[in-house]
Amino acid sequence: MSPAIELSQVSFSYGLVPVLQNVSLQVATGEFLGLVGPNAGGKSTLLKLVLGLLRPQRGRVQVLGRRPAQARRRIGYVPQYPGFARDFPISVEQVVLLGRLGAGRGRMPGFFSSADRSAAYQALQEVEADDLAHRQIGALSGGQLQRVLLARALVAQPEILILDEPTANIDMRLESDIFDELKRLNQRMTILVVSHDIAFISSYVHRVACLNRTLVCHETSTIQGDMVQALYGGEVRRVEHHHACAHPVSLS
Amino acid sequence: MNEFFIALGQQHFLQMALLSGLLASVGCGLVGTFVVVKRITFLAGGIAHSVLAGMGAAAYYGFDPLMGALVAAVVSALLIGWIHLNWRTQEDTLIGALWAIGMAVGLLFISRTPGYNTNLVSYLFGNILLVPIRDLWFMGVLDLLLLVVVVLFFRQFLAVIFDEESARLRGVPVTFFYLLLLCLIAVTVVLMIHVVGLILVIALLTLPAAIAGHYVHSLGGMMVIATLLGGVFTTGGLALSYGPDLPAGPTIILLAGGTYVLSVLLNRLLMQHRVRRSLGA
Questions:
Q1: What is the pLDDT of residues A93-110, one digit of tens each?
Q2: What is the Cα–Cα distance from A6 to B209, expressed in whole angstroms?
Q3: Domains of chain B by range and CATH?
Q4: Which of A9, A55, A191, B167 could form a disulfide with B172 if both were Cys (CB 3.0 to 4.6 A apart)?
């Protein structure tokens, strides 16, 4: 069985600034992978490559055995910064319904069907946000918005769920709620989650990939305190980690 | 005002004027809402002004100016779309240039066309009292076209206007619908030329939808309210201008602009009131 996500020898740079160098990564079907690393370490860029929003200058990206642009409708994506204005005149229900485009009759002209509506209701129920359906998107708190964005990602029944810093804009108490939810969703889909909080996510995910231009993977059972230190513990130690990554390894 | 309604019963040209105003309102509602919510007034302005090139060329070569306007508007919409997609960093300068170049080309053509003065003024500021019946039919067809496209692809337009990245990830052809949206703006500009002229089009295109946005919070609702408001402004402006024999186009725009300013102030007051009440509760 081909892996859900596969990057081989991928390099990417914005102009002359290299962001990813020789990154190889395999995410198995059904896996729950955490992607951690410092700011500007290339995490969001890696996600954009997987989603087919960017193309690698070198190397190959495959999702569900196909090119990312062909497979992206089978991915649910929760961005860190949603690409819409908060004062946009739209209800929560409509936002979630838009996630149905590309599924079923979503590609045809016309209006949303009753199947679309019941799928939207189910998705909202799944994230315990069905009571928000008729609210305006601008009237939500950070945590509520995060749930709605998760519902939008789930409404088309994706095989892979990708989340970029899903807990960055909400308080600590809700953070474990969201991850409990993800753990439950992981029973039926592959999950790739970006986080800056390695200590927190390691109790949820199967494997952690550390990304700082290059990539190293660790089984969560082997994560030690000093590794966290190495990744975040200050300039000198971060450089050390960087050297350790000079020969990227991919465990799969 | 009264004088207007008495004359309306007797004068065929006034009935035609009223009808052309109402036909233009459909554009205010359907497309104006997209322009306001997507915040592309400047792009729409560029499309509207560069239309003069097409009208001038059509007048010079003896074609129907409204046809020339339609061709120029669509070409200009696609050009502006291409600039937006590929030259994002210089977008505003390039659109500004296209805006002025279009007008310059139009002015040169018109200066070489006999009887240019009357033409020029009516292109720029509209002439709702002299809409030929053929153009009313043309406007009706454009309205139908707008209605069909917007209804059929409402979800796709909503997706692209709301969140382009997410729409792209759902497999919506974002570039196609973005360009189609600009073409709809082009059609709407042509629809409004007789009523307010291409200089004032941008106000009639955006103000009714902007006012609607103060009070309703869905795209569909904004479309309905903006269409109604467009009808009120064109009819009201026409009626107000009739007695003192003022030009109708500017009167319509002043009515719409004045209402918009009042609505902004009212909206601000309502907001403050709501904040105070929620703090008190």
A1: 999 999 998 766 556 777
A2: 47
A3: 2-280 (1.10.3470.10)
A4: B167
The residue in chain B having the minimum alpha-carbon distance to the alpha carbon of residue A97 is B155
Which H or E run includes A241?
helix A235-244
Q: How far apart are CA A202 and CA B172, in angstroms?
A: 36
The label of the residue with tokens 């359907």 reads B30
Dihedral (Cα; B259, B260, B266, B267), 10-degree rounding:
150
> Minimal CA–CA distance to A198: which of A225, A237, A163?
A225
Q: What is the dihedral of CA A45, A51, A53, A58, to 10 degrees?
A: 60
What does R_g of chain B's alpha carbons equal in angstroms?
19
CA end-to-end distance (rounded Å), chain A: 13
A92 min Cα distance to partner chain B (Å): 11
DSSP A55-105: --SEEEEEETTB-HHHHGGGEEEE-SS-SS-TT-S-BHHHHHHHTTTTSGG
Nearest by CB to residue B218, choosing from A91, A106, A156, is A91
Interface test with B, best of A72, A74, A98 (most B CBs within 10 A): A98
SS3 at position A9: strand
Task: Tell me if A208 sits within 8 A of A231, measured CB to CB.
Answer: no
A101/B167 Cβ within 8 A: yes
| Percent of chain B at pLDDT exceeding 90 | 70
Cβ-Cβ contacts under 8 Å, A83 against chain B: 163-166
> For residue A165, what is the DSSP state?
S
Distance CA A195, CA A162 (A): 11
Q: What amino acid occupies position B135? A: D
Instruction: Sort A161 into a burial class: Cβ within 10 Å, 0-12 / 13-18 / 19+.
Output: buried
For the record, the structure tokens of A86 come out as: 């908060």
Top CATH class, A5-244: alpha beta
Q: How many CB atoms lie within 10 A of CB B85?
A: 13
Number of H helices, E strands in chain B: 12, 0
Is residue B178 predicted with pLDDT exceeding 70? yes
Which tokens belong to B254? 């002043």
Q: Tokens 């337009």 sit at which residue?
A: B157
Q: Judge residue A108's burial from the number of C-beta atoms within 10 Å of its C-beta, 0-12 exposed, 13-18 middle, 19 or more buried.
A: exposed
ipTM score: 0.87
CA B129 to chain centre: 19
User: Residue A244 has what pLDDT?
Assistant: 36
Tell me the average pLDDT of chain B. Answer: 91
